[in-house]
Amino acid sequence: MSHKFNPENKQKLDNPERRKLLPPEETLGRLGMEEGTVVADIGCGIGYFTLSAARIVGRQGKVFALDLLTEMLEIVKEKTVEQHLTNVEMVQVKENDFVLAEKTIEYALACLVVHETENPTDFFREVHRVLQPGGRLAIIEWIKQESKMGPPIDHRLDDTALEDVLHQCGYAKTEKIALNSEMYAIIAVV
What DSSP string runs through 85-138? Predict the structure, then answer.
């Protein structure tokens, strides 16, 4: 059974401690997001990365904010209106059905989402389906260690095992990045 985030705790998704550990624009820059890119923010939540991604990709790019919950998408919509961001489209999805056409995305972001999926293999195959050839998937996950933040250790994913699953799902290469004391990133290329 996967660990699911409780939307009643949405205030935890954006706070000073998280911004210090995972500053959105700096993190996306480290993960290679570029101007003019078509991005899918998978499990966008309250838009923690969506808004920064929209600014980074600019008017030539686009961000699809994907989430299971209407409540989260409404929050993102309000924020995009407040910040005059016109390059974000909200998309309500099912866990392994992103409702996007095949090969339409250049860059997918899954921040602290994979450990919540029932079946990471199915999730990665669906991401692969929507990524263009040469497209990249940036995954941010919790380091498999005891911590005062994040899910219990038994719900966390080992980075090496995660890379193995990505290779089994057809991703050509992966690169690991140490983000901070709590999280790592993997960039996988189709």
Answer: --SEEEEE-BTTB----TT-EEEEEEES-GGG-S-HHHHHHHHHHHEEEEEEEE
Please provide residue 10's backbone torsions phi and psi, each rounded to the nearest 5 degrees. -60, -25
pTM higher than 0.90, yes or no? Answer: yes
What is the rounded CA–CA span in Å between residue 43 and residue 95? 9
Sheet-wide strand order for 62-67: 88-92, 62-67, 38-42, 105-111, 131-142, 183-189, 173-178
Residue 46, helix vs strand vs coil: coil
Torsion sign, CA atoms 41, 47, 53, 57: positive
Q: Which amino acid is at 85?
A: L
Domains, the chain, with CATH or none: 21-189 (3.40.50.150)
Q: What does the alpha-carbon distance between residue 35 and residue 163 come to, in Å, rounded to a whole number?
A: 27
- The pLDDT score that the predictor gives to residue 16 is 84
CA distance 18 to 14: 6
pLDDT band, very low/low/confident/very high, at 34 (cuts 50, 70, 90)? very high
Q: How far apart are CA 120 and CA 166, in angstroms?
A: 9
Going 159 to 161 to 162 to 167, the CA torsion angle's sign is positive
Q: Is the pLDDT of residue 76 over 80?
A: yes
Q: How far apart are CA 114 and CA 121, in angstroms?
A: 10
The answer to whether residue 57 scores a pLDDT higher than 90 is yes
